[in-house]
Automatic annotation (TrEMBL):
Belongs to the pseudouridine synthase RsuA family. Residues 4-155 form the Pseudouridine synthase RsuA/RluA-like domain. The keyword Isomerase applies. This is Pseudouridine synthase. PANTHER family: PSEUDOURIDINE SYNTHASE FAMILY PROTEIN-RELATED (PTHR47683), RNA-BINDING S4 DOMAIN-CONTAINING PROTEIN (PTHR47683:SF2). It comes from Rurimicrobium arvi. Keywords: Isomerase. Gene3D superfamilies: Alpha-L RNA-binding motif, Pseudouridine synthase I, catalytic domain, N-terminal subdomain. It comes from the Bacteria. It is an enzyme of class 5 (isomerase). Its EC number is 5.4.99.-.
Amino acid sequence: MPHTYLFYKPFQVLSQFSPEGTKKTLADFFEGIGKDVYPVGRLDYDSEGLLLLSNDKTLTHRLLEPRFGHKRTYYVQVEGTVSDDALHQLNKGVTISVDGKQHATKPAIAKRLPAEPELPERNPPIRFRKNIPTSWISLTITEGKNRQVRKMTAAVGFPTLRLVRYSVGELNIQEMLPGTWRELSGTELALLGL
């Protein structure tokens, strides 16, 4: 029977069940789910937010296959006051390095957030530097290259400090806490737009 779970992955947790040194993994949060459930894609160790896990091979294929181009939105805290020019460049697409080759990212939807988003505090928090301002952007992409969002913000001169995947399709982590998860209902699965 197919099962799909939405997990709010905390900072410094690996997107895998198998142990790796002393790092926390998905096994620290999921007990009693089927052995055939795996993460759909990944979220870097130093990133937070929405991670789907499923044993539904069709759903997994549709979400991971680039030609389907499903939307993922990230809330990104960057170093500095993000400029209109940087947002324009992100919207057009930028060139990043992927596996040693230059890759032109697809156009994105980049917006300056008017205020810091309501997210749980990160543990440990971002290092505060009094003389360097930060700003938050919302960045929606339809591809998922390794560390793509971090590379994109760096390419326009605004290094990422904190990265939270807020939504996949119409599903989001609003009102969830890091480390919590729930099984998705049929109605919620429909929000993925598959």
